[in-house]
Amino acid sequence: MLPMPTTTLTHDPAWPSNSLLGRLRENTRQELLNIGTVVRYTADREVIEQDAKDTHVLLLLDGVVKVQTTDETGDTALLAIRVAGDLVGEMAALDQKPRSATVVTCGDVVAKLITSGELMSFLHRRNDVFVELIGMINDRLRWANQRRRDFLSHPAAERVARVLAELVQTYGREEAHGWTLGIPLTKVELASIAGMKPRTAEKAFSDLRKAGVVVSHLRRDVLVPDLASLRKFAGI
Fold first, then answer.
1. By the 8 A CB rule, do 225 and 215 touch?
2. Where would I find the Cyclic nucleotide-binding domain in this sequence (predicted)?
3. Confidence at residue 199, expressed as pLDDT on a 0 to 100 scale
């Protein structure tokens, strides 16, 4: 069982700088951490469901989740991954409309469940957090727009390489034989971030393996022997 976060949450666990908690000043971050209710989820749990009408947000304290969407034909595409320090579900909390995506846990997750009322009251008290929240949403839109540009100007293998390079550099860890992403995602899920269908994913990863920049690994992980070579292959 995961350890319960301290009730006062006065320590700084070095949240990722691009996460919402990483963007905030210490006193503001502590005030946000002290609202809401601590919740725990096991692996492969849908914690937010596409088209649902609930409006709470989840502030991730520990663990990783994936954000995915399903179209009318039943095909599912991975949109993004989120880690400790990130906020998920904010769109429904802000506009009170049905959920635009599903959020699924990748392993055990600890989060703060914050109602839309609690969040809006907090944002009214702390305008600086609202500014940082808008900045976070803006960064996510820019990332999504970059994927659309990649779709127009790069072949499949390069698009996957660009996504992998960014994810590994942001979330991965360096080990003896290279970099690993450390998040249990399938090749199809990773390729779907780059905007390709399942049948194209295997071909793209085959091209990456032939180029020697990516090695498929056990437990749904990916090994990148040389991150610089992957970035070069991706044209970054």
1. yes
2. 20-105
3. 80
First to last CA, the chain: 40
Cα gap 192→116, rounded to integer Å: 30
pLDDT(47) > 90: yes
Instruction: Kindly calculate the radius of gyration of the chain based on its CA atoms and give it in whole angstroms.
Output: 18
pTM reported for the whole predicted model: 0.83
Provide the pairing of β-strand 222-224 with 57-70: unpaired
Residue written as tokens 């803006």? 138
What is the sign of the dihedral through the CA atoms of 90, 66, 173 and 209?
negative
Q: Is 124 helix (H, G, I), strand (E, B) or coil?
A: helix
Cα 195–Cα 102–Cα 95 angle in degrees, nearest 5: 105
Q: For residue 175, what is the DSSP state? A: E
User: What interhelical angle do 198-210 and 156-171 show, nearest 10?
Assistant: 80
Helix count and strand count (H, E) for the chain: 9, 10
Checking if the pLDDT of 101 tops 50, the result is yes
Phi then psi for residue 176, to 5 deg, are: -60, -35
CB 97 within 8 Å of CB 90: no
Task: Work out the number of other CB atoms within 10 angstroms of the CB of residue 162.
Answer: 22
Strand, helix or coil at 16? coil
CA distance 16 to 62: 12
